[in-house]
Amino acid sequence: MIKYIIKRILEAIPVMFVIITAVFFMVRFVPGGPFDRERSASAETIAALNAYYGLDKPLFEQYLGFLKNLSRGELGPSYKYEGWTVNEILAEKAAVSLELGCAALVAAALMGVLLGLAAAAFGRSAWGAILSGLSLLGICLPSFVLGPLLILLLAIKFRCFNAVGWDSASDIVLPALTLALFYAAWIARLMRRAVSDELSRGYVRTARAKGLPPGKVYFVHIFKNAVQPVVSYLGPAAAGLLTGSFVVETIFQIPGLGRFFVSSALDNDYTMIMGCVILYAAFIIFFNLLADIALAALNPKVAKQL
Amino acid sequence: MENLLDIRNLKISFDSERSRTDAVKGISFCVGEDEAVAVVGESGSGKSVTAMSLTRLLPPPPLCRVGGKIIYRGADVAEMSESELRKIRGREIAYIFQEPSTSLNPVFTVGYQIAEAVKLHFPENKNPRKTVVEALKEVGIRNAEARYDSYPHELSGGMQQRVMIAMALACRPRLLIADEPTTALDVTIQKQIIELLLQIRKSRRMSLLLITHNFGIISELCTRVIVMFRGKIVEHGPVDEVLHNPQNPYTKALIACIPRLGMREKKLEPIDYSKLGEV
Ligand SMILES: Nc1ncnc2c1ncn2[C@@H]1O[C@H](COP(=O)(O)OP(=O)(O)OP(=O)(O)O)[C@@H](O)[C@H]1O
Ligand SMILES: [Mg+2]
Q: How far is the CA of B148 from the centre of ligand 2 (A)?
């Protein structure tokens, strides 16, 4: 197992290298530079700024310089937020996004699995149809509709939560729910499908034939098999939750990384873009690894291949 | 001698939106204490659904309707509550199925799966692991202590079927229902499993209901045979009598299908249903 984890981390290094290289050159080919938006700046000032940050050097030299800094763990100064290094900004903002993303992931997994189990248990009855309909709604409803709806209902009408902001502990609930709903709905459908596929398996008949009560058949025997597709999906879902938090962070005015990522791309804040991309890529690789390890823990056949 | 199991005019039908299948059309037979009965018939003749109906393992109505009476040790199975039934399933009437590879749960160790039955039916048992290891030894699994922690996919088909048999035997049932226990296995493994069943029949008091479509394997194991065809019993009697002097044309055709040594040059005839008429 430890050998496998080390192998996966080693495999991730060339992947990261390709991503870093590709993004580094791609953003440079986008027209414009980091200081174009400073309206007051004259051409001379911009040239001076470029010279100050080394942006006038040949591109390949800049690339090598970036790699050299990166190898020491330094991402360089932000061009947009004067006086801040990218490291400092990431350290402050990524924690918020990570917290939000993880809360949403846990919420999505719990809600999805429970709803999927319930939907499968109700089968084709009216309740089953209602749950299916709800999960379809969850998939279709975009977060910029759902977020304001939740604010309207739970913050303004019932006053359970603050409408926006990131101050008290309960402020995480509404944005996490908004972010989680799509994934919860998707997981519920995955789970429902998996459970109804498993119901007709021979081992279910064996479990019933030896006298196990339905709860044990369902929550022990079927569950451990049916939850596997959900676990494999959690890796990509985590990626989606982390990188997709931009809209939700904007609606709820959360000082997270999502907004910085998008604005850094608009501002051509090269170092900031690189920082965000590297961090997101690392998160995605990490969560996929985590999902694979969890899957191996559930399925001995998968574990054997590790 | 009172019968362990008494089946009277059993009828089983499946309903779907469009069609209705009468899988079993009124059959009656019984299984005595310590008796081994074979049920023989071709695919689709209703053998498995009959076996499943005995502990109400079939889907609930309206999907599936069961008529007639199933009397187990004087009690009507249809009138038992679910919790009463669960005390019979596995504990009194145990099953082994055709496909050992799909009958075991792939994500639990075989030991866990057997111990589950032991713990369920003998909660007072202080050392279920020991009981399980003994059961594994009894069915001829070498290195039983280590095999306890194996997953099903680490075992061969024959070993998996032995595990299924161990699971059935671990709770010392009065009746073992073996639904085509050898069909999915190689010929040599088939013989080993039959021998194992024989040996178990000798060593403990337990009735056996052996379901098969192969006349060849029943004469060693069973004393009585029931021949089913399209949901009905067409012949019923002691194995020797039926084998040597079959009355029904379908039984004759089935017996003609048994490959025997020295018969190799004669080609096996497929059953010609048009000659059989309505049975
Ligand atoms: N769950 C079900 N729903 C609908 N029809 C069913 C169901 N189970 C069995 N049947 C039908 O009942 C009939 C008898 O099936 P059964 O499985 O008892 O046959 P069998 O004698 O065991 O055959 P085999 O040798 O193939 O195992 C078949 O026609 C089958 O289509
Ligand atoms: Mg069958």
A: 29
